[in-house]
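Quick note —
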Amino acid sequence: MKKYIPYPAFPEDVPIDLSYLYEGERPAGKHGFLQATDDYFTFEDGTPGRFWGVNINGSANFPEHSYSEIFAKRLMKVGINLVRFHQLDAEWATPNIFQFTKGCRKGNTRSFDEQSMERLDYLVYCLKEAGIYIYMDIHTYRKFKAGDGVQSYEQLADAAKPYTCFDEGMIELQKAFATDFWLHYNPYTKLQNKDDPVFVLGEVTNENDLFQLPITVEPYASDFRRMFKGWGNHKGIQVDSENIDINGDDPDLVNFKIELQEKYYREIIAHLRGLGVRIPLCGTNWYVNDANLKAQLVGDYTDSHMYFYDWRWGEFEKHCINQSLSGTFNINVSALGNARTIGKPFFCSEWDMPWPNEYRAESSILYAAISAYQNWGGMAIHTYSYTTKLERMQILGKEINSSSIGNVPYREGIFSVWNDPAKFGLFYHSAMIVRRADITPGKTVTAVQSGNLAEKAFNKGKQIYTGVEARRLGIKFDEEYDGAVIADTDLLVPESAGEIASDNGQLYRSWKKKYGTIKTPMTKCAYGLLNQNQDIDLDGVKVNCHSDFAVIAMSSISDQPIAESDNILLTTVGRVENTDAKFADELMLDYGRAPIQAEVIEADIEIETKQKALRVWAISPEGLYVGKVPATYEDGKLKFSLGKTMCSMYYLIQAD
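Predicted structure written out below.
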């Protein structure tokens, strides 16, 4: 029978403070501006740019000063060093960048609200002081209004996608927005935003392109046809611009869309450079197909999003995917290999495996491990929260009273991670894996040659699948590449293999046995259906887990490897749910109530260590010592059992 204990979260603090590990990284910006260097990021002084981050959405970007201070310190203690400012321009948010409160009607989006900007400025200042960098969204959810002078504005959805990619009037409005933001003077940092190295990354437009999103609204559809005709005339190509399906896959149309997207990205990026913006910039941030990716090569890096989620979370019927990563062949993160291009840095600015998937605890540490192994710039989860009113949020999955925000039901809270022990609870280890480079990058880089862009425009081109766990991978568009090129393959690791291992020996996963491991000197982890796989050897640490599903992660929180460390963090987590939550297969029937309950993981642990006087302390949600877990030391091995006494989720293994 499973045993659960209350493990609530508190918006103002976390149980364990690891900020001392990163003292030398404060304030953010001390290493100069971030730069794109070959296929990775570095700061001006040569320091590698590696980020483990969170998104904040909508109104969460404009908090009260007291919240900004608490928020920055809480992230700092966990090891998070990047926040993506997302959906600042969303009309449904209160505040948003254009309007601080609801009530008074504002008929345009041509100016920023002074009160909103003052709050944003202070948030930037607090994050900077805490050593936390900022990824800035430039165009995400802006809903044009009558006073903006945009034709058919009432027929355009949020962000006016995809028309903002080619309509000159809307492009000028985007430039004006960018000018106002980047030339804005922050009285707290005493810098214009363009001159502040706390900003490290930005994209031209969020999830916006000419391949995934149909062109239907007039007069823009007719304008597009005229542009296509002009392109054909310039190229000396006969095109039937009047009758062609402009949302189809005609080869000439595909090539025109690539060039049109390139023109758009270049125009906005050139404008930003003209303002003095120095940070790396990308076009958009999702991989739709190779044609879309080709257009993104005009940017400094590529970016994409990834979710292990089936998107059936409705207003009344709440469906979710309930599947483990460890037992799944294609785990979605593999698709990010398709979005990474050889020779440019890569960043994942949105990822999630949201509640109420009972296996979601696997995601944080596995994705961090893959990111470090691939030598990506890092990842940012979507999302920390949509609101700052977190003191009243005492259950998982529900942070507002209504069933949706802006007509989107999942925004009610299922992506909110700040109080989820199953995911946020493992961020300590995830941050160390990425920021300390606990996992070394793959030994070799393998390039997958892109196919015919017109043929592949609507079937996502080459699929890399599980290859990202075996070798460093990326797409290459040129005919030649100085490295191994796989010219024509869809499965670098076949499903029939049943397992996969990284070329540096640090990652292993078996979808047949439904478990995986991470083995490095500084961090070790076993995850998945562990009671089916006994005597798991993590090179100096052995795990015998009696719980059917668990993540057991151990990291040195000193500058010594686990075998020599006098200070080790051990986290054990499995299923985490609200009290009395009810489900019927993949349908949620009842959210449940507070407190949040974490499953107690029962396991026998053995650590080979040179330290002869280590104690194992269980830590409460409030950061208190619950008590000592009985342990023995003999023949250089510390042995103890978890889940029988002094039960918790966090354990500090420390010398006297």
